[in-house]
Hints:
Oligomer: single chain
Shape: globular
Structural class: mainly alpha
CATH topology of the largest domain: Methane Monooxygenase Hydroxylase, Chain G, domain 1
Largest sheet: 2 strands, antiparallel
CATH class of the largest domain: Mainly Alpha
Number of strands: 2
Distance between the termini: 30 Å
Number of domains: 3
Amino acid sequence: MALCASSLHLKAIPPPNLFSPPTFSRPSSRASYLRLVRGKAAPPASRALREWREYEEAVKRKDLASALRFLKSQSVPGDFDEVGMYPYGKSEERNWEVLDTCLSADDMKLVTSAYALLKDRGFLPNFGKFRSIVLEGPREVTPTVLKSSTGLEVTRFSPKKWGLDRTSSALLVAFLGGVSVLLSQGIDIRPNLAVILGLAFVDSVFLGGSCLAQISSYWPPYRRRILVHEAGHLLTAYLMGCPIRGVILDPIVAMQMGIQGQAGTQFWDDKMDKELAEGRLSGTAFDRYSMVLFAGIAAEALIYGDAEGGENDENMFRSLCVLLEPPLSVSQMSNQARWAVLQSYNLLKWHKQAHRAAVNALDSGYSLSMVIRQIEEAMSSQK
């Protein structure tokens, strides 16, 4: 441990007795050593340990308010571990865990506070770093401009309907082929097929296709595409300074949380929320929201050359456009969509390594805090 002059409090020392052997005192314990170095008594180990354990329990309970309140009370990293001290590195790592409680938070302002706290402490240097990107580039993005910038036709950025995209078409062809083979063998599965189709109809109408999506999510190529899509949302929201509440990859959980679609990334834009509450919406807030919303489509187009998912993203975009005063026309809506997807495409292209890190972290089942740490590490290594 390095010592500095300002951390020592020196007392007047009487002149030594030159005729007696020298004596040396040493700290009787680690706590005494801390008092010598810091010039003040260290807090009791048991109390600090209890406080950190309470923080860990709050994280396990997904209690963001309690976890955040504890972190705010710590002006410096925690000190104590089971034998006397927390190593600084270990206690700093525990700050990240507060992000894992965000998904259960009902108050999104607490989520914003969690990100602000970690950013102030230097954990999130890239959070909101590219917030001003929405002010750059041309506003008019025609299909020709989009193709010249990305090399892809505008139709490549259009989500596919089930049965029309390559993935679902292959599944449909395989299913029909299997039925044909069974019928040719004299195996009549029409009663069972009727039951299956009936269940699929019920799933589509009442459950939003969650059951079929749950089954499809076990197919590796399909699951990978979902990860690419959601990682695009997550990384763009993070770089744009929109706190992420969580990423839901399980279709059943997504349905239970009221999320349209098979998966979802929940993010928050405090400025946009305030403006909508006041009955207005500035261009920068709308631009930022549009970019995050179309980032999943942009990510798929960047990695695969086209987009299959994102139909619900488009629906949410249209819903917001009609709420504007005045509402956007169809041509204005199309231009805004092309502009947003181009901005997100370029942003993800510039940070392809960070996007890949997010995809791999989600694929490994990492918590939100670990996913964001992987993003930060990838971006720091890219410099």
